[in-house]
């Protein structure tokens, strides 16, 4: 092990910029193989520890718990390693390819997610030759794109049940959401064919409806914005089930001094699920929301709770929607149900909550306006947009 660490230290000292393009690519391919081999050895070692209940040595009941607590792995990664170790015992050719570095850990997991103890037992009972699948899967994994192995593994499921009984589409659905230390969120989902089609259709409808001029977002960014917009639409509609006795909504807690201070104020506001945001972001959310006043005592106990006050009333929103008809940011035109009512002069700074001081902005452009961009309405009713450097964004021929 010490020689392995020394070799890695030596690699880390190499000057990569001194290498040719061919040498960099060759090094990359070699490192992928090394990572695969190291992953195979980790999987083999964890499988041994799992079988011998080695985690009891440190007072833990399982290797999954040990990997999460001692190695600081994400729960999903710990489960993947254990799952892979168990399935490789039934597929020695695949295990050999993994050990020599030509098969990746992700490819092994494609098999492991499908072929568990139940499937192995069913194969034995039906006379299905696991060895044949072992050989085919390994050849596909070594020589073909990743998705080809997914199709090859599907053939195993078809062999176990050639008639293909109508499955319960909810059985294979999974959605995991992880919140990181800075409050950002990542996730993964697995859906059946029908469920996936519904999600893609819903997201695609918003992506195709929101293509403003000059949009430089990647497709992944467009999809993410569309997902947030779907949730925003549902939250705004008020038709979701109640959550902790109230309609689900975004909750922000912030001290009054931080809210009215024009400084950015990083980490000043706390969201309902525990993440922190800047005071500037809280002011953005306060543009079109409900405000509740809570007076706290010196010991942190609430002394007084004021009534909720809706900053933008339903009547005012209807009037703004009727006047603006869509997002007023130059080149956008997102529909009213995607938009917030923005205060041109924030109510924190004395701006009136009135029709003349309001503008309809979609989430993306509402954020832009709170980060230096500016919109204003001419006396003739024409909306105009300026960049942070005070140059105007013009659409069509020059004025």
Report on the structure:
This protein has 15 helices and 14 strands. With 399 residues, it is of the alpha+beta class. α4 (75-88) crosses α6, α5 runs parallel beside α8 and α6 packs parallel to α9 (146-160). This is HNH nuclease domain-containing protein.
Layout of helices and strands, plus pairs?
Layout lengths: L1 H11 L8 H31 L11 H7 L5 H14 L3 H8 L5 H10 L2 H10 L3 H14 L2 H15 L13 E6 L5 E6 L2 H17 L9 H19 L14 E2 L2 H5 L8 E3 L4 E2 L1 H8 L3 E2 L2 E3 L5 E4 L3 E2 L3 H11 L14 E5 L14 E5 H7 L4 E4 L5 E4 L5 E2 L6
Antiparallel strand pairs: 1-2, 3-4, 4-5, 6-9, 7-8, 10-11, 12-13, 13-14
Key terms:
three-stranded antiparallel β-sheet; 3 domains; 399 residues; elongated; 14 strands; alpha+beta; 47% helix; nucleic acid binding; HNH nuclease domain-containing protein
Please tally the helical runs, counting DSSP H or I stretches of 4 or more residues: 15
Uncertain regions: pLDDT < 50 for 5+ in a row?
none
The chain-level structural class is alpha+beta
Shape: elongated
Biggest sheet: strand arrangement: 3-4-5
Number of strands: 14
- Report the β-strand fraction as a percent range: 5-15%
Concise overview:
The protein is elongated and about 80 Å long.
């Amino acid at each position: 092990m010490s020689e392995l660490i020394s070799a890695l230290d030596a690699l880390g000292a190499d000057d990569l910029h001194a290498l040719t393009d061919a040498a960099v690519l060759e090094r990359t391919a070699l490192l992928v193989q090394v990572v695969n081999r190291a992953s195979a050895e980790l999987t083999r070692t964890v499988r041994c520890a799992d079988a011998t209940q080695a985690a009891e040595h440190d007072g833990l009941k399982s290797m999954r718990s040990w990997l999460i607590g001692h190695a600081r792995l994400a729960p999903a990664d710990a489960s993947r390693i254990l799952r892979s170790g168990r399935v490789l015992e039934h597929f020695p050719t695949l295990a050999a390819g993994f050990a020599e570095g030509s098969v990746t850990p992700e490819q092994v997991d494609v098999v492991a997610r499908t072929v568990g103890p139940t499937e192995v037992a069913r194969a034995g009972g039906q006379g299905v030759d696991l060895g044949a699948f072992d050989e085919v899967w390994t050849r596909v994994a070594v020589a073909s794109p990743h998705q080809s192995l997914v199709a090859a593994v599907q053939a195993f499921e078809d062999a176990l049940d050639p008639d293909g009984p109508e499955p319960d589409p909810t059985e294979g659905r999974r959605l995991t959401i992880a919140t990181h230390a800075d409050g950002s969120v990542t996730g993964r989902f697995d859906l059946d064919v029908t469920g996936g089609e519904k999600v893609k259709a819903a997201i695609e409808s918003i992506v195709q409806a929101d293509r403003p001029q000059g949009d430089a977002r990647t497709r992944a960014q467009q999809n993410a914005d569309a997902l947030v917009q779907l949730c925003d639409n549902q939250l705004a509609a008020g038709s979701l089930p109640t959550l902790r006795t109230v309609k689900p909504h975004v909750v922000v807690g912030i001290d009054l001094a931080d809210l009215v201070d024009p400084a950015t104020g990083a980490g000043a506001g706390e969201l309902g699920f525990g993440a922190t945001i800047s005071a500037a972001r809280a002011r953005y959310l306060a543009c079109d929301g409900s405000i509740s006043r809570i007076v706290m005592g010196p010991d942190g106990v609430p002394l007084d709770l004021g009534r909720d006050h809706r900053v933008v009333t339903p009547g005012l929103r209807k009037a703004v929607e009727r006047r603006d008809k869509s997002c007023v940011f130059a080149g956008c035109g997102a529909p009213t149900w995607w938009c917030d009512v923005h205060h041109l002069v924030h109510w924190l700074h004395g701006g009136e909550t009135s029709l003349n001081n309001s503008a309809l902005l979609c989430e993306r452009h509402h954020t832009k306006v709170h980060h230096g961009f500016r919109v204003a309405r001419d006396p003739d009713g024409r909306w105009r947009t300026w960049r942070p450097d005070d140059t105007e964004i013009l659409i069509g021929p020059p004025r």
